[in-house]
Amino acid sequence: MHIWVDADACPKPVKEILFRAAERTQTRLTLVANQPMQTPPSRVIQSVRVGAGFDVADNHIAQHAVPGDLIITADIPLAAEVVAKGCTALNPRGERYTPENIRERLNMRDFMDTLRASGVDTGGPAAFSQRDRQAFANALDRWLARTR
């Protein structure tokens, strides 16, 4: 059992929650990014720096994750790939990607990309809130409880 984090855009509060949970449960945690990542000294927490480029971190995670692992990502194509492999995927707001909802999420992502490409201002995601932080912590705790 391993937790993989698509760390380039992962909010700092989510990383802090993950650090504490990994230490508490002695669950392996790997942050993958194309820039240096600071991690606390730990025998279960590590970071992997991949080369620059489109989807390099995503590809590393997809290649190394195995069924039963947990992937933390806001990247919907990566989530679709790891869910198809039998992994669990959560976004940093605590929403779980499932085989039942991933197709809808991909379609919405593609639709929004089309709108943006045609010049429509779709805005961005809402600011990361305390409520989001709590939802993520709760979803992580549920996953950890199921896997123990």
Summary?
The protein is of the alpha/beta class.
Outline the structure in words.
The structure is a single chain. The chain has 148 residues and is an alpha/beta fold. Helices cover 45% and strands 16% of the residues. The protein is built from 5 helices and 6 strands; from the N terminus they run βαββαβαββαα. The protein has a 6-stranded mixed beta sheet with strand order 3-2-1-4-5-6, with helices on both faces. Helix 1 (12-25) links the parallel strand 1 and strand 2 (28-33). The longest helix has 18 residues, at 130-147. The termini are close together.
Shape designation: globular
Structural class: alpha/beta
Instruction: Please count the beta strands (DSSP E, at least 2 residues each).
Output: 6
Portion of residues in beta strands equals: 15-25%
Give, in spatial order, the strands making up the sheet with the most strands: 3-2-1-4-5-6
Q: What does the largest sheet look like?
A: 6 strands, mixed
Order of helices and strands: EHEEHEHEEHH
Unreliably modeled segments: none
* Rg, Cα atoms, Å: 15 Å
Helix content range of the residues, please?
40-55%
In whole angstroms, how far apart are the ends? 10 Å
Number of helix segments? 5
What number is the mean pLDDT?
A: 92
